[in-house]
Design goal:
The chain has 447 residues and is of the alpha/beta class. It has ten helices and 18 strands.
Length: 447
């Protein structure tokens, strides 16, 4: 049961009109005003859909500007009115077993090896457009031999992850979910958050963040907060609330508008295994994929690297497209995929992806946690709107944030039972299935 009556009054000490605004925001959630229920005379569902698409376009253009001419995209799909994939221009990922045969294809003469990602898969530079190269390889050798070097991002290919931009709350607001009552939860467990990086000031100014370390967040520049600034910091704070004694390290892998190439992500994850020796990896990022089998580079990372570390479990966000279409790597069988519950903890959040590939749902709407201090310029509709003046805390929604709830719960269980990451995850998923909500799925809740 959601402890609505025991979490404290965040509006204590605020002026009466501020209290009313705060309560109204809690009712409507962390969604822009244009996405609140339409009043009489306002646009119908078609108008709302256009607003949603415009938000996706804003996120899409932000990534395109950051990567400039390094990326290609699918043609826009008129049936769903959005771009499906972004991927590295004139590069393909190829299975090593087929590499020599692909290099000998007449249509791909002049191709060069760019990088061997991990054992079993290689990044190849090709002399033609990525889509053309994939078609050539598929015709010659069948499906599944090659794939694009996808853009993987905290926005995902649906461009709605996180589901909202961060919203201002008082600097003295308490985190939600609150820190676990069992202060030893997570003792001896290491959680590595693979994300945008960490705000060291936030880690130093909040007691539940004490000792959190990691790479600096490049989107934090003085008092200015760029797009997706604080994403990794917010996630680290959630992990620490659920597992107060866990060692939390934040690695900065998504440092260009919250995005990176799959090939770079494989290298970053491999580095985490080599350098950080994690028990749990929490990753709130993903993409839709060109091929139904998912991300080829990450699949080979699992087969040749991750699965040989028997204690390590990877927790991945299911994405925020309100869709059952698989979102990778969360849809892969070797991850624990996490969808989001609504703020009442009894329904699926309307933005959360869903389907049989989602393992579990956890709170992910209107969460509150640590955030950098500074000025944030909103770049998604409705625009224009005033800049956000943040004072060390924020409210945010998305499967990005239900994911660290599950990571924290696994860390807490590991410290109590002595199980490794995979065993603790399996046990918690069994518990979650026994608490299945009809129409939602398996559910895990903080105490």
């Amino acid at each position: 049961m959601r402890p609505e009556d025991t979490r404290g009054d965040l509006s204590t000490g605020m002026a009466a009109h501020d209290q009313g605004a705060w309560q109204a925001a809690r009712v409507h959630g962390d969604r822009p005003a244009a996405e609140a229920p339409a009043a009489a005379g306002e646009p119908t569902h078609e108008g709302e859909r256009r607003t949603e698409k415009t938000r996706q376009e804003a996120q899409y253009e932000l990534i395109r500007r950051s990567f400039r001419d390094e990326v290609e995209t699918d043609p826009q799909d008129p049936a769903i009115d959005e771009h499906q994939h972004l991927f590295r221009q004139r590069h393909i990922v190829v299975l090593d077993d087929y590499l020599d045969r692909v290099l000998r294809l007449d249509e791909l003469t002049g191709s060069t090896v760019e990088n061997s990602l991990v054992q079993g898969v290689t990044l190849l530079r090709v002399p033609v457009a990525t889509r053309d190269a994939l078609a050539i390889v598929r015709t010659a050798h069948g499906a599944g031999v090659a794939a694009p070097d996808h853009i993987v991002s905290i926005t995902g290919e649906g461009f709605r992850c996180p589901a909202t931009e961060p919203e201002v709350v008082p600097g003295w607001a308490e985190p939600d979910p609150r820190p676990a009552p069992h202060h030893a939860a997570g003792e001896g467990i290491r959680v590595v958050v693979v994300d945008t990086g960490l705000d060291p000031a936030a880690a130093a100014s909040h007691p539940w963040m004490a000792g959190v370390t990691g790479d600096p967040d490049p989107a934090i520049t003085g008092g200015l907060l760029g797009p997706y600034a604080g994403h990794g910091t917010f996630i680290a704070g959630i992990v620490r609330c659920l597992a107060p004694r866990a060692e939390v390290i934040v690695r900065g892998a998504f440092d260009r508008a919250g995005a990176t190439f799959e090939s770079s992500l494989v290298a970053a994850l491999d580095d985490v295994l080599v350098r950080d020796f994690p028990d749990i990896i929490s990753m709130s990022a993903g993409t839709r994929t060109f091929d139904a089998t998912g991300l080829l580079g990450l699949r080979m990372f699992h087969e040749t690297r991750l699965r040989h570390h028997k204690s390590v479990v990877l927790i991945a966000a299911a994405g925020n497209d309100s869709s059952r279409q698989p979102f990778w790597p969360a849809a892969a069988p070797w991850t624990v995929s996490v969808g989001a519950l609504a703020s009442n903890w009894r329904n699926r959040a309307d933005f959360s992806n869903f389907g049989g590939w989602v393992d579990v749902y956890a709170p992910g709407e209107n969460l509150i946690n640590a955030f950098p201090e500074g000025t944030y310029k909103y770049h998604e509709p409705p625009l224009p709107r005033p800049d956000g003046m943040f004072r060390g805390m924020a409210r945010w929604s998305g499967t990005s944030f239900s994911t660290p709830v599950v990571a924290g719960l696994i860390a807490a269980r590991m410290s109590w039972t002595g199980e490794n990451g995979r065993d603790a995850a399996s046990a918690l998923l069994a518990t979650a299935r026994s608490a299945t909500l009809t129409g939602v799925g398996a559910v895990l809740l903080p105490e």
